[in-house]
Amino acid sequence: MDWRAEGLRYFGYSYYLKQIFGFRVQRVSIDAGFTCPNVDGTVATGGCTFCDNRSFSPSRRLPVLGQGQGKRKGDQGWITSQMDDGMARIRKRYKCEHFMAYFQPATNTYAPVEVLRPLYEEAISHPDVVAMAIGTRQDCVPDDVLDLLEEFGARVPLTVEYGLQTIHDKSLEWMNRGDDHSSFVDAMERSMGRGFELCAHIMLGLPGESHQDMMATAREVASCGLDAVKIHNLYAVENTPLADQVRSGEVKLMELDEYVSTLVDFLELLPKSMVVERISGEAPRDYFVGPEWSMDKSAVLRSVKEEFERRDSWQGKRFES
Ligand code: SF4
After folding, report:
1. Atom 8 in ligand 1: which residue has the minimum CA distance?
2. What is the DSSP string of 177-246?
3. What is the DSSP letter of 312?
4. Residues in contact with ligand 1 (CB, 6 Å cut-off)
């Protein structure tokens, strides 16, 4: 897709979806009630240092999200009612009739295939759903789960999102991730060529990572077979170890100009064909700790555009095949 001919500086997600479907598609989030192996003690406890995993308690989760019409995990129509609520809210804001069912919080492949199948099935059975995305950890995709994803990917456009964050094990250790980079490499090897798209989440500004470290992550992202990437700065939300570390000054978060400059450097190293699904993070205002600037998404997008223009640059300008 020739996004540069449209005057764009990077291959943004809404442009990509419009080209693929010919109409607007919005993501609608589904909380399927999963937990995570570094929360439940399987590989670690406490979860990632930036993740409010106390909200993984099913009794808290749906009331927090205001979704589900009183239905609980396992109830008939639980997924559908969440999507209906989410779609109604999205329709009030956008003119949109088509949706991507997005299994978002926690680890959405962390269950046996017999449990996963009916959840995914219910999501794609909704008449307004035209695509599906599933967020998960790269150490939670055994071969039978990948076979299931392949099966669904043959029926509906599917993106599987891995929480890569960084290629550096010292940072994964800092965030209490409970796995190391080898699990991403392994998951990619077993996931490629199965007919679904692969996306990785990346965080910039992890403590102890140099500019060179982040560019090393960019180079691997560029060459490892991914179709898409979601990038944001490290930010802190309430009820997390990171919030305490930020307040005590132990962790310093990136300033806007540093993030924008690093992000543009990162995007310049990616191939032009890689979809950039996100370049800023978001969290509810009453839950957010900092940095303050990242709450203003439009200002971040504007600054990124200005930085590209100032450099007369674009995604892929420094990509080395
Ligand atoms: S792997 Fe994801 S869901 Fe699990 S604790 Fe970390 S950020 Fe949260």
Report:
1. 51
2. -SS-HHHHHHHHHHHTTSSSEEEEEEEE--TT--HHHHHHHHHHHHHTT-SEEEEEE--EESSSHHHHHH
3. T
4. 36, 38-39, 47-48, 51, 53, 106-107, 137, 163
Reported as half-sphere exposure (CB side, CA atoms, 13 A), residue 48 has a value of 22
Residue minimizing CA distance to atom 2 of ligand 1: 106
Which amino acid, 132? M
Contacts of residue 62, defined as CB under 8 A and 6 or more positions apart, other chains included, come to: 31, 68, 71, 72, 82
pLDDT-derived band at 74 (thresholds 50, 70, 90) equals low
The tens digit of pLDDT for each residue in 21-66 reads 999 999 999 999 999 999 999 999 999 999 987 655 444 444 434 3
The whole-angstrom separation of Cα 167 and Cα 158 is 24
What residue ranges in 51-206 does DSSP mark as E strands?
A: 98-103, 129-136, 158-165, 197-204
Q: Tell me, yes or no, if the pTM score tops 0.90.
A: yes
Positive or negative: CA dihedral 183, 49, 225, 32: positive
Structural domains in the chain, sorted by start: 3-311 (3.80.30.30)
Cβ 137 vs Cβ 36: under 8 Å? yes
Q: How far is the CA of 46 from the centre of ligand 1 (A)?
A: 10
Q: Is the pLDDT of residue 112 over 70?
A: yes
> Tell me, what's the pLDDT at 73?
62
Nearest CA to ligand 1 atom 4: 36
pLDDT tens readout for residues 212-244 = 999 999 999 999 999 999 999 999 999 999 999
Q: How is residue 11 written in tokens? A: 């291959």
| Spacing, Cα 44 to ligand 1 middle (Å) | 11
Distance (Å, rounded) from C-alpha 318 to C-alpha 176? 33
Q: 299-314, pLDDT tens digit by residue?
A: 999 999 999 999 999 9
C-beta separation of 233 from 203 below 8 A: yes
Per the CB < 8 A criterion, the answer to whether 157 and 102 are in contact is: no
Q: Whose CA is nearest to atom 6 of ligand 1?
A: 48
